[in-house]
Amino acid sequence: MIALLLALGSSLAYGCADFLGGLGSRKAHVLRTVMIAAPASLAVELLLWPFFGASFSAGALGWGAASGVASAAAFALLYRTLAIGPMHVLSPVTAVVSAALPVGVGLLQGEHLGVAGLVGLSLALVAVVLVSAGHGAGSARPSRTALLLALSAGAAIAVQLIFLNQAPSDSGVAPLIVGRAVSSAVTLAAAGLMYRKLGSERPAYAMSAAAGVLDSVANLLFLLAARSGDLTVVAVITALYPAGTVLLARSVLAERIHRGQLVGLGTAAVAVSLLALT
User: Fold this and answer.
1) What are phi and psi of 172, to 5 degrees?
2) Which of 46, 63, 134, 154 could form a disulfide with 94 if both were Cys (CB 3.0 to 4.6 A apart)?
């Protein structure tokens, strides 16, 4: 139950971070937004060090660095995917892959679920698709290249979560610190190489920093959830993060929540209830 609540908190934090990051990216090139968000995220994880501890063992360094590389790849692939579009078709593909791969890894590692858990897991995967999809999801077909990029982005996100889960359970927040340092370095290097293409627009500093802070909170909650529960369940619940983005878009931007998304939110509630019973 604790793992389930932590995973829900991680999902909500990821959804809020994506919402703020998306708004910030409307004002300037996305790399300018990430250049603010990444250091802010690293600063938060360093502040968490005294409270949760950090053991920089070989395992923590290795898995943390690997998760950082996967995180940087995930951002690059995801933004390229969404740039090609259509977003409302490709976003669910990415979310489902990012949930399905950790489920497979968890089952291969010997995790087991009862009947209620299996039904809840299946419903959660359906909810991921529904809450991610927008109006008219069947009105446009993505190209083969866009689909391949979406699958790759989802795989990169999944790999990041799997690597974090593989870090030693007694390493504290060391994997997060190492991973964020690596992903920040990769992102800043990319921004340096593309400096002339970034434009002169100033990023939304406060919004970008807030997105980075929330992303750190989400990573921490996921790590704690994975350490106290099954990766099979935690990864799927975490992948419900589009629900938070949808609700914020409704309340802040007055965007309409479509019928399919409402069904998805209801399905997610049923799925979480069934998973809680396990």
Assistant:
1) 60, -135
2) 154
Put simply, whether the predicted model's pTM sits higher than 0.85 gets the answer: no
Q: What is the rounded CA–CA span in Å between residue 191 and residue 208?
A: 16
What is the band of 87 on the pLDDT scale with cuts at 50, 70, 90? low
Name the range with the highest mean pLDDT among 55-64, 72-81, 137-146.
55-64
| Helix 144-166 × helix 87-108 angle, to 10° | 40
Q: Name the token pair of 269.
A: 């509630």
For the ranges 49-53, 143-147, 183-187, 274-278, the maximum mean pLDDT occurs at 49-53
| CA gap 180, 212 in Å, rounded | 10
How many CA within 13 A on the CB side of residue 73?
19
The single residue listed with the structure tokens 């497979």 is 104
Task: Specify whether the CB–CB gap between 215 and 42 falls below 8 A.
Answer: no
H/E run at residue 159: helix 144-166
Share of the chain above pLDDT 90, in %: 24
Q: How far apart are CA 224 and CA 243, in angstroms?
A: 21
* Nearest residue to 239 via CA among 162, 134, 130, 128: 128
Q: DSSP labels for 162-222? A: HHHHHS-TTSBTHHHHHHHHHHHHHHHHHHHHTGGGS-SPPP-HHHHHHHHHHHHHHHHHH
Inter-helix orientation angle 87-108/231-238, to 10°: 170
Identify the DSSP state of 85: S
**CA contacts within 13 A on the Cβ side of 45:** 27
